[in-house]
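User: I'm putting together notes for a lab meeting next week and I want to include a structural view of one of the chains we've been expressing. I don't have a solved structure, so I'd like a prediction I can at least talk through. The sequence is below, exactly as it appears in our construct file.
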Amino acid sequence: MKHINWDNLKILVIVARSKTLRRAAQKTGISPATLARRIDDLEHELGVKLIERVQAGCIPTPAGEDIIKWAKEMEEISFEIERAVDQQDFHEVEGTVRINADELISYFLTSRFAEFHKLYPNIEIEIITSHRAYSLTRLEADIGIRTFRPEQGDLIIQKIGTLSYGLYCGQNYYKEHQSIIDNQNWKKLDFVGFDEVRLHFETEKWLRSLPNAPTPWMRCSYALGIFDGITHNNGLGVLDTFVGTEIADLLHPVIPHIPELDQEIWISVHSGLRSSARIKAVKKYISDLFIKK
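Assistant: Thanks for the context. Below is the predicted structure for the 293-residue chain, given as structure tokens.
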């Protein structure tokens, strides 16, 4: 048997977890065709069928299930080695720290890390923006910041603040519609919100519950699109209050605070990284940012 390509084993595990090549492609950034070829290569190396591709997705064969089990054990060992090296602090405070957060928290962070870079010039920051929470156990990210309390994995979790929301419009839009806005005559106003796929978002449910308010005429698939739409005077929409406060010269607070939309902010790291100097430095800096906010 030829030498086994460990990268192909990792692909096998990802495809098995994802259930379909399409979902695996979204996670890895590798095309479905290339993923399929990598699985074929691994099957050729091992001389056994590992995955059955059916209409519903990818189903491991009995041999595939055994190989996937062993590959997951190898994956966990590799994670443990990486975490163990991080804990030893063999080096000065340096290296890369990957932070996973949603769009507006990412926006908040990127505008506030200049001071951190002065304090720790040898630490590089990667901010991974997504609605999906990345796995800290599988080292998809080092630090997670979410508006829900993580329940899975061996994590160190800390509440660092509250995310508040308000209803805003652009300053020029307010000047043109001041009396209508002040009287909250929603049916005569324009709105900017999320698209139909994101109707389950609490902010969107609240926006569409306003009495007689029309459906947002401008609908976006991402939060910063709503931010741009509001600041460019396309109508009213919901934003984080820290954004509203930060660019107060561009925005008018129609409803400055919507208490029922408040969300707790949680920061989490894997317990295996608790002693890493660079992780501790970044975690403390972020925690202080939100506590001071």
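A couple of points you could mention at the meeting. The two ends are 59 Å apart (CA to CA). The chain has a mean pLDDT of 89.

User: Perfect, that's what I needed.
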